[in-house]
Amino acid sequence: MATPKTPSLFLTLSLLCVLSLIFFFFYSTTTTPPPPIPKRALSTTQDCIKVYISPLPRSLNYGLLQKYWGLTSDTRIGSQVDNEIRKKISPKQSDTSLPYPENPVTKQYSAEYWILGDLLTPEDSKGESFAKRVSDYREADVIFVPFFATLSAELQLVVDKGVFRKRVEENEDYMRQRMVIDSVKNSEAWRKSGGRDHVFVLTDPVAMWHVKDEIAPAILLVVDFGGWFRLDSKTSNGSSSDLMIHHTQVSLLKDVIVPYTHLLPRLLISENRKRRTLLYFKGAKHRHRGGLVREKLWDLLIDEPGVVMEEGFPNATGMEQSIKGMRSSEFCLHPAGDTPTSCRLFDAIQSLCIPVIVSDNIELPFEGIVDYSEFSVFISVSDAVRPNWLVSHLKSYSSEQKDSFRRNMATVQPIFQYDNGHPGGIGPIPPDGAVNHIWRKVHQKLPLIREAITRERRKPQGVSVPLRCHCI
């Protein structure tokens, strides 16, 4: 007779245990506050990135603008428009209100100008900027180094091109690079992190050429990795060049690919008209290294019906030709040049001309945010150089597919826009523009950057953490 009561007793005891656990859990969670989250852990989920501006002298940023506009003239290709601007600039004009050069050779590498302008905008005017400037480097997520490296290099090429590759006092660009390095590396902020949380803008392949090895641990904003050659490469005389550095010093793990500043104006999807040319390309035929594919494509396509191949330079006349050519063509060819990418890609996007990317080693800005396959055609070099293959492939796309590409392209056009329409670039930026997307990509790197800093700190004296950035 006792057997039937046993399950009831068991159930009763089980219920009492469950109620006790529930009471204990409720009491403990309502009377004991949870442990505080470490302050540094919060910044990985914060809605901004905290940026400290390294205190460089103005001679290394806005002072270079004054120096550039103070030139009598610039005789290089594409500089006519800047010579006209010089006539209109007042000698008393504030250096922070000076425009960036319109010369396309320089303008395409103007990211640092717009990024610094955003950081210098007063907080109450910043609008939806993702970057929040802080006055103490110890509160910052990253340290921005405000050196106009492209302008420094271009000035030297104008004034005395002959010493550009030499580490001599006559090379003012080299001396400025040394000023930046000496100032930054002697700071407490650099010593604290080994430079790993410092941000340098190196969009021009020749920017900070002489000191790239010294800033390699930092976060580098580059248009691609094409200017970073392997140390084991040899020059024509058989010796390693001192300008070549380890290929392990750049990586998608820590660095950010940023867009060129586009040179052609934006075409709205509502303004798009019928396109009668199948494929368009304008640029130099002869390139080096990976750009040799361009010559092969040129020879294959030059006589193809529906294909326009123009050799030209980004001067005023060439720009008008490019606007007309890109806006009247279905596809725009983007072959590798001296480096895997070029400004041409972003001009095509602004022109709603479907990019045809023939560059096996290309890296693209904001991947993970932008899916380029939704508006671009990617072709391997081996396929592109097959006779008659490329044109036949492009003709296989239907009108519906091409219209879809252009609609998708129209949605991402603002992402590649730097210009905020304010003098000197100082003022509210477009919330969906290039500067905000750059800072968001830097923000994504922070956990790995902090891990690298921590690893370095725990190493015994005299032991260094090896560079292993080539794992992606």
TrEMBL record:
Its main location: Golgi. It is a single-pass type II membrane protein. Keywords: Glycosyltransferase, Golgi apparatus, Signal-anchor, Transferase, Transmembrane. Residues 49-392 form the Exostosin GT47 domain. One of its GO terms (cellular component) is Golgi membrane. It comes from the Eukaryota. Belongs to the glycosyltransferase 47 family. This is Exostosin family protein.
